[in-house]
Amino acid sequence: MTERTVFILAAGEGKRWHQGQEWPTDLPKQLLPVAGKPIIQRTIDMVRWHDYMPVIVTHHEAIIDTLDNDIDVCYPTGRRWLIETLNSTQHLWTDINVALWSDVIYSNTVIDLMLTDGRSPVFYGRWGDGYGLVWRKDDQRFMDGLKAVLEDAEVFADCDMPVGRNWELYRWFMGHNLRYHYGPTASNKIYEFVSHDDYTCDVDTPEDWQRVQETILEQLKI
Q1: 96-101 and 4-9 strand pairing
Q2: Is the whole-model pTM more than 0.70?
């Protein structure tokens, strides 16, 4: 039987949080309410509906304090970049692994797809927004990609440019320079391009948050 482990990554420092935005709350993004639940709790509940108990990867006490006592928490040994956080979970990997982002508001459709996907690797998202990825533990190329992205991040860590993200990992698999701004195409085999009709959203602005809330509440009325 194939074993699958679901991780929800919530170890970021949120350095861009509140920059240039007039937010109506000081809550961390992961704790913003959506249809009456914090974003991260809503994702946990969706994963549990599929009979998986997610592992929350974080060191933030404000987030940990909101979780149920039976939720597994992994304290990452490295968390400077998303890929370093992901790499620190290796000891928990099983046959198939899924990484979800804690500040993404997911639709049921996207969660369903990610929790049944057996490809490795496959990146989920749209241009400019990554929503997570799926990979197999025995995928050596995935390990090679993680190593390459971490080495790149160490070299460019002090430069004024993003490093260590899922986009760099995607570019590595596509054979592009990690420093070259190359986004996803809808036709390649390792990218699951989420339809623009789907409300899944990485919350970057108050407008994102409000728009998705309204969409979900409308669906709940049906």
Answers
A1: parallel
A2: yes
Contacts of residue 118, defined as CB under 8 A and 6 or more positions apart, other chains included, come to: 2, 96, 134, 136
Nearest partner of 208 among 66, 23, 37, judged by Cα: 23
Residue 58 is encoded by which pair of tokens?
A: 């974080």
What are the distances in angstroms from CA 49 to CA 42, 83, 94, 123, 139?
11, 27, 20, 22, 28
Distance CA 165, CA 205 (A): 20
Measured CA angle at 108 (ends 28, 111), to 5 deg: 75
Any idea which residue has 């679901």 for tokens? 6
**Greatest pairwise CA separation for the chain in angstroms:** 52
pLDDT tens for 4-18 read: 999 999 997 655 555
Domains of the chain: 4-221 (3.90.550.10)
Strand 122-126 relative to strand 129-136, pairing: antiparallel
Distance CA 94, CA 103 (A): 24
Give the pLDDT confidence of 107-157 residue by residue, as tens digits.
Answer: 999 999 999 999 999 999 998 899 999 999 999 999 999 999 999 999 999
DSSP 146: H
Joined together, the tokens standing for residue 221 give 């009325």
Residue type at 43 in one-letter notation:
T
